[in-house]
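Annex B. Sample input.
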Amino acid sequence: MPTVTMTREYPIDRKALFDHLTDPTTWSSFYSSLTEVDVPDRFDEPGHQATLHYRVLGRIIEATSELLEYDPPNRFRTRSQAAGLPPVEHDWRYEDSEAGTRVTVTLTSQEVDSWLGRTLDRFVLPRQLEKDLERSLDNVEGLVEFGLD
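Annex B, continued. Sample output.
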């Protein structure tokens, strides 16, 4: 299973950052490649779902994101699934730090059965997940720097 983990620190209160980053209406402002989110009435209990629209290689791909864990202001975990692609689990953990808040994000892609899928999982997907996560965390830095809405 390809897994990518990154940790960043931001000069902001943990609850304020958690509240902002777990609100689906804000996701397209920092998630790399995410263009639109169809937001449900609520997204704060396991089992709640949102529909995501990503731009990948010039095409819009639709995915479903299911909330797996919601523990304010400590942890937020979802699983996203797009047709024909392996599911990806997003695990965001928040801790107080000297700088303000330390955020550790782990992205884990589920195993696939086909030879081509396993090859992509082993060589292509980890690099893509790492690149997207790095861009997303850079975007969070910009949001924090210029103030959260």
